[in-house]
Automatic annotation (TrEMBL):
Pfam families (UniProt xref): Y_phosphatase (PF00102)
GO MF annotation: an example: protein tyrosine phosphatase activity
UniProt protein name: Tyrosine-protein phosphatase domain-containing protein
Higher taxonomy: Eukaryota, Metazoa, Ecdysozoa, Nematoda, Chromadorea
Domain Tyrosine specific protein phosphatases: start-end pairs: 218-292
InterPro entries according to UniProt: Prot-tyrosine_phosphatase-like (IPR029021), Protein-Tyr_Phosphatase (IPR050348), PTP_cat (IPR000242), Tyr_Pase_cat (IPR003595), Tyr_Pase_dom (IPR000387)
Domain Tyrosine-protein phosphatase: 74-301
Length: 306
């Protein structure tokens, strides 16, 4: 608001933010004409209804929704009622013999959409069956288990030794097992409509505190990279598991993406990656101790490229 003094000594108050109607009329429209959309879709040889549907799906909502998380039928499938699941990025199960809900989210990689899936560990017979269906559907190349292999959650993912386990109509069979400092399992998955697939499963049993990064985190990452040097850049190539599917999994995601960015582009976009992660996976990296610990690790990694 501005105060203007006139020649006769009187004053008046003017709204400085108000734009005259004349200046508004002179401006060109800032809205796209519907025919521009038609022209764009025609040039790209895509039916109009398909293009509109694709645009609707791709446009992110400013305010995320959590309808499926709060659905009464899914309550028993959520380990932690404080770790919400975003409708926009959640993995929708399509394998038969169950519902479409599992507490897991797609997160975009550095250059590949939905390259990562961050998920909670199964904690009941119900969620164990759903987890089997999740793995069968996604066919991940790598499954990273950020928990003790001897825990109930750890045992529910991989059978002990060279055993096998069937849940939800999906069979997990250990084809090969290597134990050094870290456990590495080659897992065969069969029985679902998606066919047979194989995955490399890695356990990090040394991570015991959710609020503290283990000292050998980079060593474990190098171990995984050595065993699987080339992971295809495709949807759901990496499945990252921790108890709530957010805290430890979020740390792993940032380490992976920022290390890749350093190797390929010689720079770090720490804040950018964290914003992306938090938008797609609720509750990820919300602990200050993990945040500062991760910065320390990435500084050491970056020093190798200087």
């Amino acid at each position: 608001m501005d105060v203007i003094k006139k020649k006769d000594g009187t004053t008046s108050v003017v709204n400085a933010g108000k734009i005259s109607q004349r200046s508004m009329r002179k401006q060109k429209s800032r809205f796209f004409h519907p025919m521009m959309l038609v022209q764009y879709l025609t040039e790209n040889k895509k039916p109009i209804h398909e293009g509109i549907q694709a645009a609707f799906v791709d446009i992110c909502r400013e305010s995320p929704t959590y309808f499926e998380f709060f659905n009464d039928k899914n309550t028993t499938r959520n380990r932690n009622q404080k770790t919400l699941l975003n409708d926009y990025s959640r993995v929708v199960l399509t394998e038969p013999s169950g519902g479409d809900y599992y507490h897991a989210s797609y997160v975009d990689g550095l250059s590949t959409p939905k390259q990562y899936v961050l998920a909670q560990a199964p904690f009941s017979k119900e969620t164990e069956a759903d987890f089997h269906r999740l793995v069968s559907q996604l066919k991940p190349e790598v499954i990273v288990m950020l928990m003790n292999e001897e825990s109930n959650e750890g045992k529910s993912v991989c059978p002990e030794g060279k055993g096998e386990k069937t849940c939800g109509g999906i069979k997990f069979k250990v084809e090969e097992e290597n134990k050094s400092k870290y456990r590495h399992v080659k897992l065969a998955v069969s029985g679902g409509k998606s066919g047979v697939s194989k995955a490399n499963v890695f356990y990090m049993s040394t991570w015991t505190d959710d609020k503290k990064l283990p000292g050998d985190l980079m060593e474990f990452k190098e171990f995984v990279q050595k065993k699987c040097p080339t992971v295809p850049a495709r949807e759901a190539a990496s499945l990252v598991i921790c108890k709530n599917g957010a805290k430890r999994s979020g740390v792993w995601y940032i380490m992976e993406t920022e290390t890749e960015r350093l190797e390929t582009k010689k720079r770090i976009r720490f804040s950018e990656s964290i914003r992306q992660l938090r938008y797609q996976r609720y509750g990820a990296l919300d602990c200050f101790e993990l945040y500062t610990g991760l910065i320390d690790i990435m500084q050491k990694v970056a020093s190798k490229y200087v």
